[in-house]
Amino acid sequence: MHFKYPPNEDLRRLLRFEPDSGAIWLGDRRMVLMHTMAMSALRQDLITSVGAEHARRILTRMGYAAGMCDAEYARKTRPDMTLNECFLVGPQLFMLEGAAHVTPVKFTLDIENGDFYGEFNWDHSWEAYAHQQKYGVGTDPACWTLLGYASGYTSAFMGKLILFKETLCAACGAEHCQIIGRPIEEWPDGEAHRVYFNDDSLMEKMETLQLQVDALKSKMEPANLGGQLIGHSKAFRKAYTLMQKVAQTQATVLLTGETGVGKERFARALHELSSRADKPFVAVNCAALPAELVEAELFGVEKGAYTGAHTQRMGRFERADGGTLLLDEVGELPLAAQAKLLRVLQEGEIERVGGEATRKVNVRLVAATNVDLQQAVLAGRFRADLLYRLNVYPICIPPLRERKSDIEPLAQNMLLRFCALHSKRVSGFEERALQALKQHSWPGNVRELENLVERGVILASQSGLVEVENLFPNQPDAVQTSLDAHGHLAKLPSAHDTDLCARILDSGKALEDIDALVLDLAVGRARGNLSEAARLLGMTRPQLAYRLKHRQPRGPTSDATDLRSETATL
Ligand SMILES: [Zn+2]
Q1: Is residue 306 a contact partner of residue 353, using CB atoms and an 8 Å limit?
Q2: How far is the CA of 169 from the centre of ligand 1 (A)?
Q3: Cα 27 to averaged position of ligand 1 atoms, centre (Å)
Q4: Given 3.10.450.50, 3.40.190.10, 1.10.8.60, 3.20.20.150, which CATH number is that of 401-491?
Q5: What's the rounded mean pLDDT across residues 481-508?
């Protein structure tokens, strides 16, 4: 080594060992003496757990911080020396601290103009040695901590970001390491290196990525495999098995069930399980289309077919070509559109509105309805011949109240999706909330559950549980559960219920009379429709009929007489 450093006594004096107080000092900064073996183990752990790129970033920043600290001593210890001799405090401390031996090859600096160029060789880099010990001779320079130090020291010394790069490294089999430093803007790829000095949290980055992945998953979910349909109840499995069996065929499927049971999701699952899975799935809600546009939407339109048809447009049938078309709420189609739909089903070709030419389409039709199409046929609102065409393979999707055991797994799955969607961390449902979900009657079915869970996630406190009040904020009385005498969760009468019972007692009426009055009121409200009255009373129609038939005759009210005659014909 030909280079002649200034004597380093001034620097050695900075270093003090104080075993009595358990400290080592460099000037007024505390240091530790660490085993390179330990540093090497830390390095390896970092590489294993966060990957080489992030490990490099973390170690570069650690070295950078050390270099910045050491730069403070440059002028403090050599106030009367030349700028170059001041600068050499860095390399000399670097050697004193045991990082590597530094030989300046060439360096020029001008603080006022911000000019810097430095070229140094390192021998015996501890880091190159440690890296090579673990990973063998590599292709990429590995002195990340040391290079961070060089950048940190020089940047603090110059008052601007000086980026050092390692052009040769002993870890790659070179005789020694070689580093070159310049202001970051003078490196053509300098900006790309800036990330090594930026403050960033890996955890934050990973959490953000995880949220993005979850959100993507939740977006993809409806189009996902049929396996995404959740349910193990008997009622659900029956419908699911029917769907699985028909999926591979080309048969038209009619999905029936109450509003919100998940007919569209079923249709998507059917599509995904079919041989058409890689072709489009197109869903149309017939009830949502204005009557005058239904045909244009379904079959397409030629330019100028009607006022406002400025361009020709493909219909849903054409867009679904090769795939599956779901006609939701098919019972709402106007009769004219029904006739045209029937023709498409018979001929397998469509004609755009305002056009003459016919186009072949290959579409698997799935129709869905929540109304009784037989009734609609009787009422003259639906074509009987179209119903026969659609009703080849009916699948009835059960309402949620008939698959109570599915409520919890469904709710848990929705919770995950909405947490991802709203970037919120909620750890689950409180026990009372789960009880309330199970006790609810779910007139709106799965869609209602989905709305409730989404609201619950939004209202729940961060990192907390969804509480019953988050799910049912406006009806606290409806779902009151509490601990019973045995310490089990039980539904206790609400204050409202207790009040009602007190009023009944105070009325002095016999329980039987009250019973009769309530039955009559329900039947009256249902305008004599027994099924509806039974629903209001929370019983089945036969149960209601039985009770009406067997009760003690009361005064001849017209309602009661009519009803008895009706029940007699059951
Ligand atoms: Zn190296």
Answers
A1: yes
A2: 4
A3: 28
A4: 1.10.8.60
A5: 64
pLDDT tens column, 258-314: 988 989 999 999 999 999 999 999 999 998 888 888 888 899 988 877 776 677 788
Q: 73 C-alpha vs ligand 1 centroid, how far in Å? A: 25
Is residue 569 scored above 50 in pLDDT?
A: no
CA torsion, ordered 327, 331, 336, 337, to nearest 10 deg? 0
| Tens digits of residue pLDDT in 325-363 | 999 999 999 999 999 999 999 988 888 888 888 889 999
How is residue 313 annotated by DSSP?
A: B
CB neighbours of residue 347 within 10 Å: 12
- Cα–Cα separations (whole angstroms), residue 33 to 283, 487, 554: 69, 60, 99
Distance 155 CA to ligand 1 centre (A): 20
**Residue 270 to residue 246: CA distance in whole angstroms:** 8
Condensed to tens digits (0 to 9), the pLDDT of residues 162-173 reads 999 999 999 999
The third-level CATH classification (topology) of the domain covering 9-203 is Muramoyl-pentapeptide Carboxypeptidase; domain 2 (3.30.1380)
At the topology level of CATH, where does 260-390 sit? Answer: Rossmann fold (3.40.50)
Tell how far the Cα of 85 is from the centroid of ligand 1, in angstroms: 25
End-to-end CA distance of the chain: 112
In this model, does residue 478 exceed pLDDT 50? no
Q: Hey, which residues does 177 pair with through a beta bridge?
A: 122
Give residue 172 CA to ligand 1 midpoint distance, Å. 8
Dist. CA 134 → ligand 1 center (Å):
14
Return the C-alpha torsion angle 348, 353, 357, 359, nearest 10.
Answer: -30
How close is the Cα of 431 to the center of ligand 1, in Å? 59
What distance in angstroms lies between residue 101's CA and the mean position of ligand 1's atoms? 11
Contact 460, 467 (CB under 8 A): yes
Tell me the CA–centroid distance for residue 62 and ligand 1, in Å.
Answer: 16
Q: Which of 89, 81, 92, 84 is nearest to 108 (CA)?
A: 84
Given a contact cutoff of 8 angstroms between Cβ atoms, the answer to whether 303 and 309 are in contact is yes
Q: What are phi and psi of 304, to 5 degrees?
A: 80, 10
DSSP label of 478:
G
User: What pLDDT shows up at residue 355?
Assistant: 84
- Compute the distance from residue 174 Cα to the ligand 1 centre, in Å: 9
How far apart, in whole angstroms, are the C-alpha atoms of residue 380 and residue 376? Answer: 6
Rounded Cα–Cα distance for residues 171 and 139 (Å): 8
Give the containing element (helix H, strand E) for 101.
strand 101-110
Q: How far is CA 490 from the centre of its chain?
A: 34
**Residue (of 336, 335, 326) closest to 364 by Cα position:** 326
> Ligand 1 center to residue 167 CA distance, Å?
9
Taking each helix axis from N to C end, the angle separating 541-550 and 511-525, rounded to the nearest 10 degrees, works out to 130
Please report, for the chain, the start and end positions of each structural domain, with discontinuous segments joined by +.
9-203, 260-390, 401-491, 509-568
The angle that helices 234-247 and 263-273 make with each other, rounded to 10 degrees, is 40
CA 152–ligand 1 middle distance (angstroms): 17
- What is the mean predicted confidence (pLDDT) over 406-422? 89
Separation of CA 68 and ligand 1 centre (Å): 20
